[in-house]
Amino acid sequence: EAQVTQNPRYLITVTGKKLTVTCSQNMNHEYMSWYRQDPGLGLRQIYYSMNVEVTDKGDVPEGYKVSRKEKRNFPLILESPSPNQTSLYFCASSLSMYNQPQHFGDGTRLSIL
Amino acid sequence: KNEVEQSPQNLTAQEGEFITINCSYSVGISALHWLQQHPGGGIVSLFMLSSGKKKHGRLIATINIQEKHSSLHITASHPRDSAVYICAVSPEIQGAQKLVFGQGTRLTINP
Predict the structure, then answer these.
(1) Which residues in chain A touch residue B97, judged by CB atoms under 8 angstroms apart?
(2) Chain A contact for B38 (CB, 8 A cutoff)
(3) CA of A24, closest CA in chain B: separation in Å?
(4) Residue B73: which of B88, B58, B52 has the closest Cα?
(5) DSSP letter assigned to residue A59
(6) What Rg, from alpha-carbon coordinates, does chain B have?
(7) In whole angstroms, what is the distance from residue A108 CA to residue A8 CA?
(8) Which of A102, A109, A110 should we substitute to test contact with B (largest number of B Cβ atoms within 10 Å)?
(9) Where on the phi/psi map is residue A42: left (φ > 0), alpha (ψ -120 to 50), or beta?
(10) Half-sphere exposure (CA, 13 Å, Cβ side) for B3?
C-alpha cells in the first residue's frame, strides 16, 4: 500500500531533550516536506526537500533540522525542543516538486513540557 | 492579511444539502490544492487545480485564475463529509515547491 509513515504518532517530552520524528514514503517520491499545524495558524511549512541531499527552509524553520540521505526518508530533528514547538506535525511527499498532489502522513502530536 | 482566505470558517448543514466552500488568494499561483482533514487528524488531498474544473464523485472543484478564486462544492452532502476542508496554493514567485495554506473550513453535516 502506498503510504507516508510517521513515527512516533504521539510524544510527550521535556524541554531540551533531543528528539527525531521519522518520515518514510514507499512511492519513490522526489519531493518531501514537513508542516506543523497550530490552532488559529493553520498549516505552515517547516522544511522541504526536492531530492536526495537537497533541502530548503520553509516558513518556520527555526529550531528544526532535516536531512535527506535516502530518497524514502526525511526525518525532522528537534535538537533542543522548547514548549513553543508543541504542535501537530505532518510529513508529506509528492512525485515531484512541480504541482503534484501531496500524500500526507497521519501526523505526530508532540507535547514539549 | 493572509495570502489565502477561506469562507466560511464554519459551516453546519443538513444531510442532502449542496455545500460550497470558497477560497480566495492574493498572489499569482501555479496550482491550488483542496485538502480534507478528518476529526482523527489525517489529511487527504482531494484536488489539485491550475485551471477550470475537476469532479470526483460528489465533489467538484473550480478555479477562476483571473479572479484569484476557487470553490469546492459537495452535492448531496452526507454526515461522513464532516471534516475540515483546507485550501492551499503554490505561489508562482516562490516556485512550485512551497504551499501556503488557508485556515480551513470546518464542515458539519447533520443527519
Answers:
(1) 31, 33, 48, 50, 56, 97
(2) no
(3) 16
(4) B58
(5) S
(6) 13
(7) 6
(8) A102
(9) left
(10) 18
Q: Check A45 against B99: CB less than 8 A apart.
A: yes
Q: Which residues of A touch B (CB under 8 A)?
A: 31, 33, 35, 40, 42-45, 48, 50, 56, 58-59, 88, 90, 92, 97-104, 106-107, 109
- Residue by residue, pLDDT tens for chain B (111 residues) are 578 999 999 999 999 999 999 999 998 898 999 999 998 778 999 999 989 999 999 999 999 999 999 999 999 999 999 999 999 998 887 555 688 899 999 999 999
- Residue B3 CA to residue B47 CA, distance in Å, equals 19
